[in-house]
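Lab notebook, bench 4. We co-purified these components, and the gel suggests they stay together. Before we commit to crystallization screens, I want a quick structural picture of the whole thing.
Request: model the full complex, all chains together.
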Amino acid sequence: MISFGRDGRSLIARIEGEIDHHTADEFKTSIEKEYGRINAKNIIFDFTGVTFMDSSGIGMLIGRYKKAVEYGGSVYAFGVSKEVFRIFEMSGLHKIIKISDEEPADNLKKGGRVKWVK
Amino acid sequence: MGEITENKVENRVRIEMDAKSRNESFARLAVAAFVSELDPLVSDVIDIKTAVSEAVTNAIIHGYEDSPGTVYIDLKLTDGVITVTIKDDGVGIDDISRAMEPLYTSKPEEERSGMGFTVMEAFMDSIIVRSEKGRGTEVIMTKKLSDV
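Here is the predicted assembly.
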């Protein structure tokens, strides 16, 4: 499942459940749509609820990274579990996606500006 | 009585499934259930699930190129070692060594990372890939489950 929040030109994508070939295609489509709809620049992934990821997730994330770079933005991820981080590391994703233990969106939340939508 | 130890359990399960992406999660659940009788480490289960997910995805995307087909999964447990065989009757692989190179993908336009075989190699103890053009591909992987 995926839900979205935003702050200015940062799209916040909260993914819950498993990221595999089947779901990665769905996530890609809905992120692309929302990214365009809000005219976003950055993408912040909330991985807190991700229970599984295989290499299909790598492809999906690299695709979103390329898109964000094209629009002058960056990609962030927080809540990445130890297991998922291994997949990040194996592919070098951790070098292009800024991973944080803390929520970069914390400051946004304090301002009460993040609204999650289904 | 009491002669059978956990590591001596022998078991075999065979599954045939439609080559549909929504069956990938079923394949992962099935393999996790299969090894559960050995009370394995969570990390071992995640490794095996991930490797199975990669092999089944390859069969669906590359073997059958998203057209109808059947993926065959054979799970075997011998002396605490799981042997997983994932087979398809799809198009086969032209050049296995190249297919197994990290970051190589035959479908870059579909956002494939080319990391599937690299993940399988990293997460399992051994991997053998047999393929014949026009006949299909078979991936055989083994992993010794850690003693808890």
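Chain B has one domain: 6-144. Worth comparing against the SEC data before the next meeting. Residues 6-144 of chain B form a domain with the Heat Shock Protein 90 fold (CATH 3.30.565.10).
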